[in-house]
């Protein structure tokens, strides 16, 4: 006698996207649990460490659509802003904006906006993050030129020969730890008088958005009094807007294993 199977209970879930948090220096996935949240969204961390967005109020009709996603809203027309925090303090808090809905076509699974590809979220190290051998240990202090206020949430870029070697963010104290990996111990010199060199020239770029960052008076920093709201910058948004932001350019010389401390002043209107 052939038994009959009965569907007693069915649980179906549709994922809208997934975030993969990675170390900004090594590009390695971060295994330690982080806190990822967004208003109106339900997130779950799965066994592989991805933060899966299962639902969002702006895309409520997608929750029960499995065979064919709804035609509206169009792909990439909505923006979901998520906050990412590290309870251990190893990485700085940040925001990330993801365009939704993602492209659900299996034929385009290799595209950056595909539903089948997680969104990589770079997490920038805090002051206590470890340093590996031969990394450049760059520590940057950012202040406002006139007032001396510390600038939190500023974007730091290390650029050499039009290539970005590293990025970082300042914390509420205006301090940034920017490790630069991959600087060779020796390299070929462009100077005909020298065959090899152990240092490379670079530019330390700093950008600050007053609307997204924080300003803290120096006496409050010395007293350890953090502002009511600590910085929660979106590095991608700062990258896009950087040409129009208050900024500072400082020449630096990099060498493998070297530690540098740089003070930067930015005039903020």
Task: Summarize the structure in words.
The protein has helices at 218-222, 235-241, and strands spanning 17-23, 35-37, 41-45, 51-56, 78-85, 94-100, 119-123, 136-144, 150-152, 155-160, 163-169, 175-180, 187-188, 196-197, 200-207, 214-216, 247-254, 259-266. It is mainly β and 269 residues long. The protein has 2 domains: 17-123, Immunoglobulin-like, CATH 2.60.40; 136-266, Carboxypeptidase-like, regulatory domain (Immunoglobulin-like, Sandwich). The strands form 6 sheets. A 4-stranded mixed β-sheet has the order 3-4-1-7, with no helix packed on it. A 4-stranded antiparallel β-sheet has the order 11-10-15-17, covered by helices on one side. A 3-stranded antiparallel β-sheet has the order 2-5-6, with no helix packed on it. It is elongated and about 80 Å long. The model has no long low-confidence stretch (mean pLDDT 90).
Largest sheet: 4 strands, mixed
Strand order of the largest sheet: 3-4-1-7
Q: What is the multimeric organization of the chains shown?
A: single chain
Number of helices: 2
Distance between the termini: 83 Å
| Unreliable stretches | none
What name does CATH use for the topology of the largest domain? Immunoglobulin-like
Structural class: mainly beta
Rg, Å, rounded? 22 Å
The beta-strand count equals 18
Strand content: 35-45%
| Overall geometry | elongated
The CATH class of the largest domain? Mainly Beta
User: What average pLDDT do the residues reach?
Assistant: 90
CATH superfamily of the largest domain: Carboxypeptidase-like, regulatory domain
CATH architecture of the largest domain: Sandwich
Q: How many domains would you count in the coordinates?
A: 2
Amount of helix: under 10%
């Amino acid at each position: 006698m052939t038994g009959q199977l009965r569907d007693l209970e069915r649980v179906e879930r549709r994922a809208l996207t997934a975030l993969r948090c990675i170390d900004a220096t090594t590009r390695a996935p971060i295994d330690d649990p982080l806190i990822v949240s967004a208003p109106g969204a339900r997130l779950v961390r799965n066994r592989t460490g991805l933060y899966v967005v299962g639902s969002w109020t702006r895309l409520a009709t997608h929750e029960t659509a499995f065979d064919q996603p709804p035609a509206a809203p169009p792909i990439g027309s909505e923006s979901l802003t998520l906050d990412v925090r590290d309870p251990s303090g190893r990485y700085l808090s940040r925001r990330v904006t993801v365009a939704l809905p993602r492209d659900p076509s299996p034929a385009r699974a290799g595209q950056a906006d595909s539903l089948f590809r997680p969104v990589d979220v770079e997490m920038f190290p805090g002051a206590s993050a470890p340093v590996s051998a031969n990394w450049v240990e760059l520590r940057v202090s950012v202040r406002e030129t006139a007032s001396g206020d510390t600038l939190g949430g500023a974007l730091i870029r290390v650029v050499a020969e039009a290539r970005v070697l590293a990025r970082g963010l300042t914390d509420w104290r205006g301090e940034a730890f920017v490790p630069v990996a991959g600087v060779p111990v020796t390299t070929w010199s462009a100077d005909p008088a020298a065959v090899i060199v152990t240092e490379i020239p670079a530019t330390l770029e700093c950008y600050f958005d007053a609307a997204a960052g924080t300003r803290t008076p120096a006496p409050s920093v010395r007293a350890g009094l953090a502002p009511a709201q600590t910085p929660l910058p979106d590095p991608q948004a700062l990258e896009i807007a950087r040409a129009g932001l208050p900024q500072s350019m400082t020449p630096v010389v990099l060498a493998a294993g070297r530690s540098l401390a740089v003070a930067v002043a930015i005039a903020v209107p």
